[in-house]
UniProtKB/TrEMBL annotation:
Keywords: Membrane, Transmembrane, Transmembrane helix. Residues 287-314 are annotated as: Disordered. This is G-protein coupled receptors family 1 profile domain-containing protein. It comes from the Eukaryota. The chain crosses the membrane at residues 40-58, 70-90, 102-123, 156-178, 198-217, 223-241.
């Protein structure tokens, strides 16, 4: 095994470790007790774990096992990518208040991506040749040129589309830009969702674009393997980040600091006409808020959009 292949194997081994850690973190509180969005996120982590393991095995001398491992790898890879992008589309559709133009374009893009993924699974014949390379003793990658370039380009277009939708929400709603300067729960939540998605989609768009350019230029396969691993690790990182942000937002929703100026102002507005003192009213208001915030009776608002109470934000 040459040095380049050894580096690629080591990177894929690290990918397996990250994927396994991510999957265990997602499964910590139980798959069946999770929401639909959480279950889909767990499935993405499991798919990337299976992809990383099979890709790692492809670099080992497996003889006739190349074809089977490659078919498993390419199937779970496309499933993970389509499912992950669908989750992003669904999440942004909530932020854009289910805008009909966004939903229509998102549906068309995801149908095209799914069709290209199915075509790639058929035309690439499992992704590798059925016999290992006799020189380096590992499986030879045999990606179909048309479908390989097309689905990488579609991934880049989808990420750019999501980024455009998020930035449109950020810059078109001037009222929310003013609200971002306040330290309220909704302002923090709105800003966190926007900034996280902008960073994620910009980063993944650049990685997909670089991968597409390297495919068009017929670059060395070891660098393409490096980019694939970076792409997969990036997706897994965002899975871990999303999980931690959910816990943070849940803790944020359980208690809101009484010294928050916005909240105090709301207490003062409700206090008018009451026979209680302002201090007693504020104390009662915050006490009730702490006990009822975990099960609110009305939808929450993120900027211009009302979010269902049972919606998993990330």
């Amino acid at each position: 095994m040459d040095i380049a292949s050894a580096v690629d194997v080591g990177l894929k081994g690290a990918f397996i470790a990250v994927a396994l850690d991510t999957t265990l973190r997602c499964l910590y509180k139980g798959f069946y007790e999770a929401t639909l969005i959480s279950r889909a996120r767990i499935t993405v982590g499991c798919c990337f774990l299976a992809t990383s393991i099979t890709n790692f095995l492809l670099k080992l001398p497996l003889g006739s096992g190349c074809g089977l491992n490659a078919r498993i790898s390419i199937v779970v890879f496309h499933v993970a990518m389509v499912l992950g992008e669908s989750l992003q589309m669904y999440r942004i559709s909530i932020i854009t208040n289910n805008n009909k133009w966004f939903v229509s374009l998102a549906t068309i893009l995801m149908l095209l991506r799914s069709g290209i993924g199915i075509a790639d699974m058929i035309l690439s014949n499992g992704g590798v040749s059925l016999a290992p390379d006799e020189t380096f003793q590992h499986c030879i990658f045999n990606q179909n040129q048309f479908t390989g370039i097309t689905y990488v380009g579609m991934d880049a277009i989808i990420e750019l589309f999501i980024t455009t939708a998020i930035t449109s929400v950020l810059f078109l709603h001037t009222r929310e830009l003013i609200m971002l300067k306040q330290r309220t729960k909704n302002a923090l939540l709105y800003r966190t969702i926007i900034e996280t998605n902008v960073f994620r989609t910009c980063f993944l768009f650049l990685v997909n674009l670089l991968t597409l350019l390297m495919v068009l230029l017929n670059s060395e396969s070891v660098w393409l393997g490096f980019l694939w691993s970076i792409l997969g690790i990036s997706y897994l990182y965002f899975v871990i980040y999303d999980k931690n942000m959910v816990r943070f937002l849940q803790n944020l929703g359980k208690s809101e600091a009484p010294q928050d100026p916005y909240t105090i102002r709301q207490s003062q507005l409700r206090y008018r006409g009451s026979t209680l003192s302002l201090e007693d009213w504020t104390q009662i208001h915050h006490g009730n808020q702490q006990t009822t915030s975990t099960t609110p009776s009305s939808p929450r608002r993120i900027g211009p959009v009302e979010i269902p109470n049972n919606y998993n934000f990330v």
